[in-house]
Amino acid sequence: MSDFDQERKNEILDEIIMSRRTVRNFAPDAPARELVLQVIQAGLYAPYARAAVESFEDGYFRRFFIVCNGTGNMSAISSMMNRMACEKYAQLERQRSGDPSFKERSRSWAQRLKWFKDLGHVPGVTTSPYYILIAEHRGIPDLGQRSLAHCLENMWLKATALGLAFQITTMASDMGDDEEFCGLLKLEPGEWDLMGCALGYARKTPGPSKRPPVDEVTTWL
Ligand SMILES: Cc1cc2nc3c(=O)[nH]c(=O)nc-3n(C[C@H](O)[C@H](O)[C@H](O)COP(=O)(O)O)c2cc1C
């Protein structure tokens, strides 16, 4: 590769990294299925914890489920995730009531869960044309969520490169032990870690991310 090509490649990568944003307001238009598959392919090519999952011989270690908005499956997934948000909120409030220091530290998360509960759905679910669930085999040791973080980042960067909008939804990570939810995906409950994201087009494209200067957060030792 020539120096020019290398430089251009680096510039393009920086451009994609800097313009990647969380989008929470989606247009109703659905991206072409081909684009959705390109995003999934980027996720499939993300690293995975081979040593943790290679002794499992029951199929692929990473699976993707595309839920289209307006379908019965989307409604079912949304209501199961909302039920989980309500349970998590009740559980968190019990924990907060006996521990003033924890109560203060968990304020932001408690507010978020209460908002989900009042809204009646988890933001990102039913609010975009596609909701994608990604399942990673838990393995030994269970590194599923860590592998999923790599997978989601690849998908997010690819979505950015394709001009698509992306929103990660943490609540999906609580669904891996839920029998009804896993049943809908035909996955064995307790065997998979889950994560989810909304995909579509942004109603309004957010500006670039704001971060501190790199030397302010870096220490050379
Ligand atoms: C592990 C993780 C979980 C996140 N969960 C959510 C979520 O459930 N809903 C959401 O809207 N954003 C979620 N986000 C997005 C962050 O809020 C977002 O990345 C952060 O505010 C910085 O904004 P940016 O992504 O536009 O740079 C999550 C991000 C990470 C890394």
Q: What characteristics describe this protein?
A:
alpha+beta, NADH Oxidase, 4-stranded antiparallel β-sheet, 221 residues, binds flavin mononucleotide
Protein architecture, described:
With 221 residues, the protein is an alpha+beta fold. The protein has a domain of 123 residues: NADH Oxidase (3-Layer(aba) Sandwich). It contains eight helices and four strands, in the order H-H-H-E-H-H-H-E-H-E-H-E. A four-stranded antiparallel beta sheet has the order 1-2-4-3, covered by helices on one side. Helix 4 runs antiparallel to helix 6. The relative contact order is 0.21. The model has no long low-confidence stretch (mean pLDDT 95). Flavin mononucleotide binds next to strand 3.
Structure, briefly:
The protein contains eight helices and four strands; from the N terminus they run αααβαααβαβαβ. The protein is an alpha+beta fold and about 220 residues long.
Indicate the topology:
Elements lengths: L2 H17 L13 H12 L5 H4 L8 E7 L3 H26 L2 H6 L1 H13 L10 E8 L6 H18 L3 E5 L9 H7 L6 E9 L21
Antiparallel strand pairs: 1-2, 2-4, 3-4
Helix pairs in contact: 2-7, 4-6
This protein binds flavin mononucleotide (FMN).
Strand numbers in spatial order across the main sheet: 1-2-4-3
CATH homologous superfamily caption of the domain at 40-48 and 60-88 and 116-200: NADH Oxidase
Indicate the proportion of strand residues.
Answer: 5-15%
CATH level-1 class of the domain at 40-48 and 60-88 and 116-200: Alpha Beta
Report the oligomer: single chain
CATH architecture of the domain at 40-48 and 60-88 and 116-200: 3-Layer(aba) Sandwich
- The shape is globular
State the low-pLDDT regions, or none.
Answer: none
**Helix proportion range:** 40-55%
Number of helices: 8
The overall pLDDT average reads: 95
Present as ligands are:
flavin mononucleotide
Number of strands: 4
Summarize the biggest pleated sheet: 4 strands, antiparallel
**Radius of gyration over alpha carbons?**
19 Å
The first-to-last residue Cα distance is 34 Å
CATH topology of the domain at 40-48 and 60-88 and 116-200: NADH Oxidase
N-to-C SSE string, H for helix and E for strand: HHHEHHHEHEHE
